[in-house]
Amino acid sequence: MNSEAKISQLANSSFTMDDFAKALEKHDYQFQKGQVVHGKVYQIDSDGVYVDIGGKSSAFVPRDEASLRAVINLSEVLPLGESVEFLIIRDQDAEGQVTLSRRQLEIKHIWERLAQMQENSQTVQVLVTNMNKGGVTVELQGLRGFIPRSHLVERDNLEALKGKTLTVGFLEVDRNNNKLILSQRLATRSASFSELELGQLVEGKVTGIKPFGVFLDLNGLSALLHIKQVSQKFIENLEKVFTVGQPIKAIILDLDEGKGRVALSTRVLENFPGEMLENMDEVMASAEARAERTRTKVTEQEHS
Predict the structure, then answer these.
(1) What is the pLDDT at residue 137?
(2) Is 208 left (phi over 0), alpha (psi -120 to 50) or beta?
């Protein structure tokens, strides 16, 4: 086909350049899915709300996208003439109309708040809605979360937790995969940590004996009494010194809430090297006075 024939064919085509320009006008490319926009409600129908978001586009909010909570009256949630923020959830259709959501914007804000709370190691209250073998499902600000059985304080009777409110910490906040994993034990640990300070005398029960040290339970918090912090004298075998279930008083040597670590020492309570091995009962019986003496020494060193 020669060039004249091509031009002639274009001229006779039913789709002219004017039509092309009009088609382009219908689409406002400044608005895209995932974008947050401001818009003014100008019409309310039974199935949704029409919003002016500027530009060439009109916008529509379906009824089930109007709010995170159940909507009975659309005008109460999105009143006429009110300027509101929305999330674009669908690009323009053939008529150039975009679809908006207030509900999904609220969900986006909730995920952002929860991620911030996780970063700040904050705790939050949740309502237990159901359970399965692996743990319990909970409701948190309209989102569905999960607490694994291993992260519950009460693990034996999950049925009894239904309908209860629990204080939890955050294990995983992943909006992209819609994963919200929570921990009651983490929140308990945070509460326990807030009651502890360096140099404090605490009492716990021995829960485990390892070659490198002894684990103690401090009101639900696990703490480590390292073998080098038991006594000023060398110890060959900790199992000859301690038994599981034995109550022990010790001084807090180090605290790391981020890693959930508490380091203890009984070595600092000794009057002479090996006293913990030779006469532990005496060290434990007078632990308060010995701890006070240790604190006084530390204070004097700080001020000298």
Answers:
(1) 95
(2) beta
Which residue from 197, 199, 281 is spatially nearest to 246, judged by alpha carbons?
281
Residue 98: exposed, middle, or buried by beta-carbon count in 10 A (0-12, 13-18, 19+)? Answer: buried
Given 2.60.260.20, 2.30.42.60, 3.10.25.10, 2.40.50.140, which CATH number is that of 30-101? Answer: 2.40.50.140
Q: Which CATH class is domain 114-189?
A: mainly beta
N-terminal to C-terminal alpha carbon distance within the chain:
101
> Average pLDDT in the 35-54 region?
92
Superfamily classification of domain 195-294? Nucleic acid-binding proteins (2.40.50.140)
In the chain, domain spans = 30-101, 114-189, 195-294
What pTM value is reported for the model? 0.58
Is-contact 286 276, C-beta < 8 A?
no
Q: What is the pLDDT of residue 7?
A: 47
Give the CA diameter of the chain: 112
Torsion of Cα atoms, 191 then 192 then 195 then 196, to 10°: -140
What are residue 239's phi and psi, to 5 degrees?
A: -70, -15
The span from the CA of 90 to the CA of 122, in Å, is 35
Q: What is the 3-state secondary structure (H, E, C) of 179-239?
A: EEEEEHHHHHHHHHHCCCCCCCEEEEEEEEEECCEEEEEECCEEEEEEHHHCCCCCCCCHH
